[in-house]
Amino acid sequence: MISKLTGTIAHIDLKYIVIDVGGVGYKVYTTGDTAHRIQKASTVTLWTYLAVRETALDLYGFTSLSELNYFELLITISGIGPKTALGVLNVASIEALDSAIRSGDTAHLVKVGGIGKKMAEKIVMELKDKVDGLVENASATGENDEHRAKLRTEMKSDADALEALKSLGYNHNEARDALKEVDTKIKDTSSKVKAALKILGR
Predict the structure, then answer these.
(1) Counting beta carbons within 10 angstroms of the beta carbon of residue 164, is it exposed (0 to 12), middle (13 to 18) or buried (19 or more)?
(2) Which homologous superfamily is 1-63 in?
(3) Model pTM score
(4) pLDDT tens sequence across 50-96
């Protein structure tokens, strides 16, 4: 089992990267956010999951153990394979997933993440008893309730900004992708909308 890789980036594509480890190139499927974060790094370390199929061995990689843990939890759900789990993590952060699962509130996850209602409800129902301690920054602070409340507030702000952008004529995917690029230090809805409009106008 290949559980971690450290090497240099040989190639980055939309859905995967190739990591050169001692002259051997490993093709690793990852999220767009992960690829964006590591694209300029000289050396990269990814925590990996090896999916064994009859016709292929597929590697999935993440920059943190929390992301890998959530990925592995998602694939325990009936009907969710590795590619679907990666798709979920492509549209929703593990913090958003964690908050939705713990609170049982899928509304903002559906809006901001773009995950279907049935999928979101299934994720929340099947993982609600399995997520304790998976998100590092939540467990490390010892302030889980406060942390989750903050996440829910931020998710509501994102959802409101998303609706505002859609009312201005942008489709869901355009608005969501722009909001993902907005500086995380920007918290209030109106400022998020302004920042997203600048990104959309580039």
Answers:
(1) middle
(2) Nucleic acid-binding proteins (2.40.50.140)
(3) 0.68
(4) 998 888 899 999 998 889 988 998 999 888 889 888 988 887 778 77
